[in-house]
Amino acid sequence: MKVRLFAIVSLVAVLVLAAVPAFAQDDMQTIADIVVSSTGAETPEFTVLLAAVQAADPSILELLANPDANVTVFAPTDAAFAAALEALGVSAEDLLADTELLNNVLLYHVAPGSFDAASVVALNSALLGTMLNETALAVSVDGDAVKVNDSTVVAADVMAANGVVHVIDAVLLPEMGDDMMAEDMGGEMMEPAGNIAEVVIASTEAETPEFATLLAAVQAADPAILATLTGAGPYTVFAPTDAAFAAALEALGLTAEELLADTATLTSVLAYHVVPGHLAAETVVAVAGEDGGVNVATALPGTIVNVVASDMGVMVNAANVVTTDVHATNGIIHVIDAVLLPPAG
User: Fold this and answer.
1) Is residue 177 part of a domain?
2) How far apart are CA 236 and CA 26, in angstroms?
3) How do residues 84-95 score in pLDDT, each as one tens digit?
4) Looking at the 3D structure of the chain, how many domains does it have?
5) Are residues 19 and 156 in the same domain?
6) Does some domain include residue 208?
7) Is the peptide bond before 234 cis (omega within 30 degrees of 0)?
8) CB atoms near residue 20 (< 10 Å)
9) pLDDT score recorded for residue 208
10) Residue 328: is its pLDDT beyond 70?
């Protein structure tokens, strides 16, 4: 299996060099810079994508141009857009004039976090959450082809200062349900207390503190974890209670001090509790209700958690979800009764 995965990643790397000569692998360029520069190549590749970004809500261009952003973009070629427009029976002008549709389609091509080719291949048969609330992309490996939904990755690992671009041969179209919105979840919802980190901090100051160990872990881990929890997101966090941490430490034969002193392990464990995308309880139950549940990508590259929904409740690996839909400005929190431990290595 490792040999096959290595062969696939090697093939994708070759495709990068063969299919995208216009891209200088300059890590000083942002994703927006890369898209713009590609349109000036001898054979322009992303003119429609650039026009779409320019016509969409300005926040999308700001995201792709922000050097501190950390995102993965699946970028459709001009040929991919031409095929999609023909299939939909609309012109490029029609698409560019429909700002709401354009926003949703573009956000559906962006995943929070940086996932290189090897990390994407490792997500075979799993879902990867996107910047569009309540949506995820299905990753599959079919022979030597890496597929995202029904599109095929034709070039990968175009590295940028603020993430990575993978080129795809088809436009990804989200299901446009009435209750799915790019900017908010609609309906009755309390105003979030802050970003995910601020919600955790507030909970430790409550009459019955719940996440004191989680907060200490975030503070002791690599600063990238805190940056993720305070960043734009959106992310879904499965948050273990203090009792969950106590049980895990006892099972591992560790003290809290020993865990907090091991920065590398702590960082991996925390990243494994973070899932790209905003996935509310209703969405999780809808996609995880089949036999075997569903595998979902985490912020720890190349790893997944298994989510199963049944009459008994929702489980994430061996943990039970005990509280759902704690909203934050940059995502959502579901409380779990056990610590999730990433696979060794």
Assistant:
1) no
2) 31
3) 999 999 999 999
4) 2
5) yes
6) yes
7) yes
8) 23
9) 78
10) yes
